UniProtKB/TrEMBL annotation:
Gene Ontology BP term (one): osmosensory signaling via phosphorelay pathway
Species the sequence originates in: Elongatibacter sediminis
Matching InterPro entries: BphY/WalK/GraS-like (IPR050351), HATPase_C_sf (IPR036890), HATPase_dom (IPR003594), His_kinase_dom (IPR005467), HisK_dim/P_dom (IPR003661), HisK_dim/P_sf (IPR036097), Sig_transdc_His_kin-like_C (IPR004358)
Keywords: ATP-binding, Kinase, Membrane, Nucleotide-binding, Phosphoprotein, Transferase, Transmembrane, Transmembrane helix
Domain Histidine kinase: 318-540
Protein's name according to its UniProt entry: histidine kinase
SMART domains hit by this protein: HATPase_c (SM00387), HisKA (SM00388)
The keyword Nucleotide-binding belongs to this UniProt entry's keyword annotation: yes
């Protein structure tokens, strides 16, 4: 019985001692963490204070530099700029500017500086400041001083010493409290901050909590570029200390026996987390395998699609070529039949026979367009420098060589040379210029203008006419292959969109521009003409990497 009691007491004592040791260790760790937080906050605030004070000195020196280059400063200019300096640097009481060639200027905060004149009693100490500043070889800050009400202030002397440019002396008298309040306004919330210079307190903010651990009080020194050494102290306030406090420490002390349960829970949670992690790893591996399989399937289908596209293009080319001979045979036989038996045929039969010729011609035109589109898709691409003005003139001369009635007047502007494939560009110009000629036939004074401009660093060419035009809302559909809209909607804009056409002319143009890596767009209005804009330069260095180039 005694042994069980002793064992129970011993176990209780061990658990209690372990709880007390754990509580003390955690409390010490908490204090160390808080001390580290206070140390980091103090360091950050000191660093920011140094930067902010250097900005004040830089603002004063910038004003000194500006005034030193002005020569004689007008009173109205001086008053306005001095007051702006007071607003920029809070706490500034006096600003004195001493120019060796133009005398001294004085401004006091919140005075109507235009009418202000210091009394002889006021001017004596200010004159002494100027005399003292003239004796200084380098810029400096002097203080701390206390005014009649006990408020600390200091004096800043900026001279034209070896480290600064421009002649002249600037003296500024600044109250430490308002200045430091502005400089530390957003720094260290929740802390009591105190700034000392020697044995004078320049600034005090907030009330520190009582009975703080020694390590929770952090102090450090900052030194400005003018060699002033200030001591900055940080101490948490009571509100901040309450936010640091944690009731879990007392719970650990009084409920130490629950630690075992908590450790069991933590062990269980750790095992469950480990199990979830392994399941997640397995799922990730399965997902990676599925992604690899999917990528493999996509690659296979992409290759299969490319093969089918190639086969389709091959079949299209073969059909276009192979149908020429039967069409030629039909046309020759119809012509021979008309020559031999045309006179013997009744009137109705002759009319039926005459329909063969336009049908055969239409089929031939269809094959020509299909062959042209195939050539654009598969022709060898060779970039070379093209004289676009000369090439445009050649293509237009060929289109108008048949002596069509009322041909449009061609106006060619200043066209930069293009770096493109001559054959493809000739095809593009043939379609666009032919399109313009076709749709200006009914215009009284037809005009086709060819111009160029630079858009986003790329040359954009434009072929515009004053013909029948088209409805702008159908512009995007005009470049589709075999797209034939109703004439009322497009005014037969496509070169092939006359009766018997396929709607391939502008699709050939689009393919030419696509092979060059350029852009193509159209603008127009019904009855007012149309304009086609295109570029012949790739949009990135990787465009058309498979094409050849001639230099």
């Amino acid at each position: 019985m005694m042994m069980r009691l002793l064992l129970s007491v011993l176990v209780t004592a061990i658990v209690a001692l372990a709880s007390l040791v754990s509580w003390q260790s955690l409390r010490d760790h908490e204090h160390q963490q808080v001390a580290r937080v206070v140390e980091l906050e103090s360091y950050a605030a000191r660093s920011q204070l140094v930067r902010n004070f250097e900005d004040v000195l830089a603002a004063l020196d910038a004003a000194r530099m500006i005034w030193s280059t002005r020569g004689e400063i007008l009173r109205t200019e001086w008053n306005g700029e001095a007051q702006n300096l007071f607003e920029t640097i809070p706490g500034t009481k006096w600003v004195i500017w001493d120019d060796p060639g133009h005398g001294a200027r004085l401004a006091r905060h919140r005075d109507a500086a235009i009418d202000y004149r210091p009394s002889p009693e006021e001017w004596r100490p200010l004159s002494a400041l100027i005399s003292h500043g003239r004796e200084l070889e380098e810029s400096t800050i002097e203080g701390p001083y206390l005014d009649d009400s006990g408020r600390p202030f200091f004096e800043i002397y900026l001279t034209s010493g070896p480290q600064r440019r421009g002649a002249g002396l600037l003296v500024a008298t600044i109250d430490a409290g308002p200045l430091l309040q502005r400089l530390l306004d957003s720094e260290s919330p929740g802390y009591s901050v105190r700034v000392d210079w020697d044995d004078v307190t320049l600034y005090q903010r907030g009330k520190a909590a009582e009975r703080l651990p020694v390590e929770w009080t952090q102090e450090g020194y900052i030194r400005s570029s003018l060699d002033s050494l200030w001591r900055v102290e940080h101490r948490p306030t009571a509100e901040l200390v309450r936010s640091f406090s944690s009731s879990s420490m007392d719970l650990i002390l009084w409920l130490g026996l629950i630690i075992a349960v908590l450790m069991g829970i933590l062990t269980f949670e750790n095992w469950r987390a480990h199990t979830r992690a392994r399941a997640a790893e397995r799922a990730e591996r399965r997902l990676a395998n599925l992604n690899r399989d999917l990528e493999h399937q996509i690659d296979e289908r992409t290759r299969d699609l490319a093969d089918r596209t190639t086969d389709l293009q091959t079949v299209t080319d073969s059909v276009a070529h192979d149908m020429r001979n039967p069409l030629s045979t039909i046309a020759m036989n119809v012509e021979l039949f008309q020559a031999r038996h045309g006179a013997d045929l009744p009137e109705g039969a002759a009319g039926i026979l005459q329909r063969f010729e336009p049908a055969v011609q239409q089929m031939a035109n269809i094959l020509d367009r299909m062959l042209s589109l195939a050539e654009v898709n598969h022709a060898t691409f060779i970039r070379e420098r093209l004289d676009m003005a000369a090439l445009t003139g050649e293509v237009y001369a060929g289109l108008t060589a048949t002596g069509a009635e009322n041909p449009a007047r061609l106006i060619i502007g200043d066209l930069p040379d293009a770096h493109a494939d001559r054959t493809l560009v000739s095809t593009l110009l043939t379609n666009l210029l032919g399109n313009a000629l076709k749709h200006t036939r009914s215009t009284e004074e037809p005009v086709v203008r060819v111009s160029a401009s630079e858009v986003d660093g790329v040359t954009e060419y434009c072929i515009a006419d004053n013909g029948s035009g088209f409805d702008q809302k159908f512009a995007s559909r005009m470049f589709r292959a075999f797209e034939r809209l109703e004439p009322a909607k497009t005014s037969n804009r496509d070169l092939d969109d006359q009766p018997g056409g396929l709607g391939l002319g502008l699709s050939i143009v689009a393919r030419v521009v696509e092979r060059h890596g350029g852009r193509l767009r159209a603008e127009g209005r019904l009855g007012e003409g149309a304009a086609f804009f295109f570029t012949l330069e790739p949009q990135s260095t990787s465009a058309n990497t498979g094409d050849h180039e001639k230099t």
